[in-house]
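> example.struct
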């Protein structure tokens, strides 16, 4: 009976988030009992993915910082990136991306890894080298982190995971040439909002860098019974931090000396 009640509660939470996203409506509070574990949060996420109905074009990977990593037994979390929210940067014409005006909205500079070979669904552990062998391209990019729930990042990683990992889109920038030998994880990355520097950083400061995010995702999805697909993107984590944005903002991220990606921010509309 308790398991049935838990399942009903998880379904209600998923329905509330999906409905709020479709209506571009803010949520003042978490729509149910906050999940106590990432396993419960991913159960909500699984239901929400089914209700959402769009194809999954990739997965965002985000950090879980100490001491919460010990509490939840993981130093990262994942959420789906839906096909309708993936856009490709065009030189001279910034992509328009959306955030929930009455919720949470932020932008993150990230390296995007493309899956070139479908992982074995039965394989549960990967070395960094094995993870790298499944990647066929690395691009620079921007993740739009947005949720109808304004306090999503204040309520812990299980809350974040339960609402699609707080994702609302991806801007895919230029491909990093010769990524295996380019040393891109050591490149300085700078993100500006309306021309003002919001953050700087290096991807190598993340645990095992961007490839560590890929390894984490391959192992997590095998545990969850989700088959990753060739061509899906892995948004590997915020290099310069999570930077709040509001409609009207202009964003640019620069990666090393030669790569940049841009977008503008608008308010999400009901659909």
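> example.seq
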């Amino acid at each position: 009976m308790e398991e049935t009640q838990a399942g009903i509660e998880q379904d209600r939470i998923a329905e509330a988030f999906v409905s709020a996203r479709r209506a571009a409506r803010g949520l003042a509070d978490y729509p149910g009992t906050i999940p106590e574990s990432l396993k419960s949060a991913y159960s909500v996420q699984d239901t929400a993915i089914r209700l959402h109905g769009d194809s999954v074009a990739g997965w965002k990977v985000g950090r879980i910082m100490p001491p919460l990593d010990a509490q939840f037994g993981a130093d990262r979390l994942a959420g789906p990136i839906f096909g309708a929210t993936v856009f490709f940067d065009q030189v001279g014409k910034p992509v328009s991306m959306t955030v929930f005006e009455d919720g949470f909205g932020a932008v993150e500079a990230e390296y995007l890894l493309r899956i070139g070979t479908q992982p074995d669904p039965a394989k549960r552990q990967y070395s960094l080298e094995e993870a790298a062998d499944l990647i066929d391209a690395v691009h620079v990019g921007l993740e739009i982190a947005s949720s109808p729930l304004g306090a999503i990042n204040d309520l812990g990683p299980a809350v974040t995971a339960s609402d699609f990992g707080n994702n609302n889109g991806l801007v895919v920038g230029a491909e990093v040439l010769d990524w295996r030998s380019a040393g891109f994880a050591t490149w300085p990355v700078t993100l500006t909002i309306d021309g003002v520097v919001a953050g700087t950083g290096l991807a190598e400061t993340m645990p095992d860098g961007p490839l560590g995010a890929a390894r984490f995702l391959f192992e997590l999805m095998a545990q969850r019974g989700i088959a990753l697909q060739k061509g899906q993107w892995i948004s590997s984590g915020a290099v310069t931090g999570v930077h709040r944005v509001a409609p009207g903002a202009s964003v640019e991220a620069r990666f090393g000396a030669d790569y940049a990606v841009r977008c503008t921010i608008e308010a999400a509309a009901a659909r």
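> remarks
Residues 2-267 form a domain with the Fumarylacetoacetate hydrolase; domain 2 fold (CATH 3.90.850.10).
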